[in-house]
Structures are given as structure tokens and as C-alpha cells.
């Protein structure tokens, strides 16, 4: 026990050092942790601790899923609902089938085993991808699309993994395709209903409680309780946790939870996910059998290419189907990012280690999975920023951040002036207090406006960016007005549909 505690402290210290270092060298945190774990494993710096799959599934996974869900805004996802839905319902099975087919022919794996390998590598490293997208300030719709897909892909992939594992272990009992599909649908819907109901109940209970620490405790019980309850009811535990987190994050936080609780809750879950993610990547690095991977160089490379070929097929199919849709049109410049931004992460390693000994070619699957994850996090993690910049999808760094800072200060000052005016108009503050504070905020707003003017003069691109942003905002306003007019029967369906198509095409052009 003492040795385990010492090892955990060493891992946390390594995580802190890496977290500080990646701010300077600009590589994904997960990639740096994995490399650090590799070095620590080769030097035998940490002992007495291993990557137990049961710990990953029952301790780490609920935390990661709930944190990602509770911090996700469903409004952008709803606007991309058709595209996200297609990627999840059609895209993931297509990717698994295509990648599994290639793995069967290229690696010589049995059919069921090849499909199982494709399923266990389907989960993505959501934290690494989202951190890069936010840092590079890609278009909001692209970030929302990839975040939404990454949020649900783990649940769908785990369902496929468990289903295909049953096929591999008991082929005679699970060969009926209709039965497999029906079971898959029941697991997904059952998990969603359980998580949604639990999230709603906990949100309502939190509304009656005024203790922010107890409210945060309730969300912890919800995350792990939904996971365990789903396991007992034999429905999807991962989808249950994700749905519960979405309900709390988009209903509870906005309608039933106090601001103090919101700050405490978000801080708690951000910290928890940070610690869990750090330990998971470091432990993966410690477990990678680096010398033995040299015997699997060709299979690893072939598997890596097969997985990317399957992902490419999925993205191209989604582009072809949604290209003419009103809400989900994908600009062509997004497609390479959607393919290359699909990182294979630590969950795949845990799934590979959890494979029973009876699975054919288990040793090959584990080694190839380790190699694929290592390649993905190093190659894609380092180069994704370059790809985004080359495609000109990144917002202006440097002075754009400076512009946002000044712009935010101006908005805050103007908002404070408006609030002071409201309070004074209602007789809630004296004229002396109103005059004094209003003058202070006027000075702050005027100073910020001068700084913004200087930035505009130095960087003409800012004016173009602002024009594009405001123009896109006006197009979204037009869309909302047309939709409301159609709902109120002020516009016919035919005329409204034509107008919406015209507006959506203009929006898509503005984001290309």
C-alpha cells in the first residue's frame, strides 16, 4: 500500500511538471504524458502500480465522461444535429466495418477479431482534440461537431466492443444480425433513458438544496450511480453517464443551480478529469512494451493506415449525405481536420488489456493497439496544429487574443454602465454613487476604445474578421426570424424553406 501511494505521488508530480512544460513547447498534454510515461517505464522510475482495466472502467471512465458532458452546451450540437447523428448512427458502424475489413485482409485476423479490433480503437481522446481546437480557435461549428461526436463516440464504441466481444467468445449464440441490432438499440436507448431520468431528478433535488458542497457531492453520486445502475440493468453505462451529465449541464446549471454551485461544480469536475486523465496517460506509457513493439512494426503501420482509411470513408460519406442538408453542411476544408483530428487514446489501451485470454490473437491485438495509440498521439498530436493553420481554419493568434481582451473589457464596462443606469432609474442607488461609478466605467470604456482603435490601425485583418463575424451573426438572426415566421404561419413552408436554404448557403460560405 505504501509503495502504491508513493508511486501515485510520483505520477502526480510528473503530471504537474508536464502540464507546466507543455505550455512552452506547444504539444498536446496527453502526448507529453504518454512520452513521459514511456521514459519512466524504461528507466523503471515507478513500480508497484499498473493499469487495471476494472479501475479504468469503474473509476476513471465515469469521471471523464461526466466532466465532458456537464461542460458541453447542447445548443450548438442541436444546430448540427443531423450531421452529428449521422456520424454516430451510421458513421461509427461504417468506420468499424471498413477498418475491420482492411484489418482482416492486411493483418490476417479472423473476421470477428478484426471487427473487434476496429471497435476497441474507435474511442477518441476527446480532451486532446478539444484543447487543440479551442487553442487554435477553429470555427465554432467545427469545434461543436467534433466535440459532440467525441462525447458520444465512446459510448457507441463501447457498445460495439461488448457486442463484438460476445460474438468472438460465443459465435454460435450471437450470429443472428437482427438479434445483435435489437440488443444494440436496447442498450443505447435504455442507457439514455436511465441517465436522462437520473440527471433530471438530481437537478430537481439540487434546486431545493442551498449547500454547494452537498450539490457537488450529488453530482458525484449521479455520475457513478448512473454507471453502476446501468451495469446492473444491463444497459449502456457510458451512454447513461453522458446523458446524465448533459441534463445536469444544460438543465440543472441553467435553471436550478446557484452561481456559487456552478463555479464549485465546474472547478471540481475539471480538476477530477485533469487528475484522472493525467494518471491514465502516464499509466498507459508505463505499460507500453516498447522493446516488443519492434516485432510488430509492420502490423502496427498497416493497422494505423486501415483505421484512417475507415475514418476517411466515414467522413466522406457524411460529407456526401449532408452536403445539401439545411443544417449540417460541411465545408470541404473541415474534412482533413475531421479525419486527422480523430486521436486514438488511452481508453483503447484499457479495452485491449481487458480482452479475455480466450480471444484469438489477443497478444497481437494488445501490441498493435499500443502501437496505434502511440503513433496517433505523437504524429497527429504534434501535426494537427500545423494542419489547421495550413487550411487557414485558425483564428488570428497573438493580436487576436489581445483584441478579444480589450473587446471583453469594453463589453464589461458598457454592461456595468447599463446596470448602473437601471439601478439609478429604479431608485436603488443614490445619484452620487451613480455619477461616481458611471464616470469610472466611462474612463475605462474610453481607454479600451482607444486601444482597440490602435489595434485596428496596426492589423487590418481584424476589421475583416469582425466584418465576417458580424455578418455571420446577422445571418443567424435572419434564420431565427424566418424560422419564427414559419412557425407562426406568416410564411409558407415552401417560401420559408427556400429562404432558409439561401441563408444556410451564405453561412456555409462564410465559414469556408
Characterise the protein shown here.
The protein has 512 residues and is an all-alpha fold. It is built from 21 helices and no strands.
The backbone outline, from C-alpha atoms, is globular
The major pleated sheet works out as: none
> Structural class given helices, strands, pairing?
mainly alpha
Contiguous low-pLDDT stretches (5 residues minimum) are none
- CATH architecture identity of the largest domain: Up-down Bundle
Question: In the CATH scheme, what's the topology name of the largest domain?
Answer: Na+/H+ antiporter like fold
Question: Roughly what is the average pLDDT, rounded to an integer?
Answer: 82
A few lines on this structure:
The protein has 512 residues and is mostly helical. The protein has 21 helices and no strands.
Question: How are the SSEs placed, and which strands pair?
Answer:
Layout lengths: L1 H24 L3 H14 L10 H18 L3 H6 L1 H27 L3 H10 L5 H11 L3 H30 L7 H31 L4 H22 L3 H20 L2 H29 L2 H4 L3 H26 L12 H6 L5 H8 L8 H29 L8 H27 L5 H28 L1 H28 L5 H19 L1
Comma- or semicolon-separated keywords:
512 residues, mainly alpha, Na+/H+ antiporter like fold, 3 domains, globular
